[in-house]
Records
---
Amino acid sequence: MEIIFETKYFNVIANKLPLHITREDWWHLRITPKVPCEDRTELSIKQAQELSVLIMLIWEAMQTAMSKQWINIKRINYQSNWNYNHTFHVHIYGRAEDAKIQPYGNALNFPKINTWFYDKNQEFTDKDLIEIKKKINKLLKTEKYQNIFE
């Protein structure tokens, strides 16, 4: 697990294995509150607003950075989960148009963790994460995101 970006209330995390989506189909990032909670109804209005903008920022950064790595992300799925760690978190799943394992346009498939499904899934490379971080920093200088997390 690597924290690739953080705000006052949230961490953006690149998970290690097992992965729901392999890198070529496009991988995913996870946003977790710094103070664990059971679901989003426990967030303050300020935290909920920050989460919404953070999702937008991360999506834009992921799409641009990964297209530089020749992974064609067409859509994104946002999913609030409460499964393996029993605390609220948001997964940001990029969906590659030419995905092989998690076909674009189909619902995501999440078999049990200790199955063959995850055996060959690849995580982000160091270069992927560097590109995503660079894009986040670049976006934070734009009018849209400037001073948003202060």
---
Amino acid sequence: MKPAKFLKRTVNYLKNFKELRTTVIKVGLPKEKATGKAYGEGGLSVIEVGAIHEYGTEHIPRRSWLRVPLSREYKDIDKMRTKMMQRIQDGSLTVDKAAILFGLQLEKICKNEISSEGNGTWPKSDRAVKQDGTTLYDTGTLRKSISSAVVSDQTK
């Protein structure tokens, strides 16, 4: 490799590395996108409903649609991250575009968790039993609200 090409590649690598250090991908119900959405007039916010099901309460069993699926899919997520990093390094993908695509894939994992009712492990909700429906999917508000946001954290 010629010195000029090596230098250009090294400078690009350093630029991308600095950008990656400050890039944060928020997945789930990031306040940048989920704030203000509510269930019914004067009802709970979508963030409150998401937290209730993620952690459970005294009367509502835990139905983790965020932590459990992302932990379970860790190996596939890590492979995806590695491929994205390779594409950033070879110049076929920008850091910002890679972060957006990565966030979309993580959203898909969380949304699929709701659609599959925790891969069939969640207890049926009373509403789902009565209406022969899918738990956490009566109006689709929570599932539709799952999103990702790419932000820069300059404190890193």
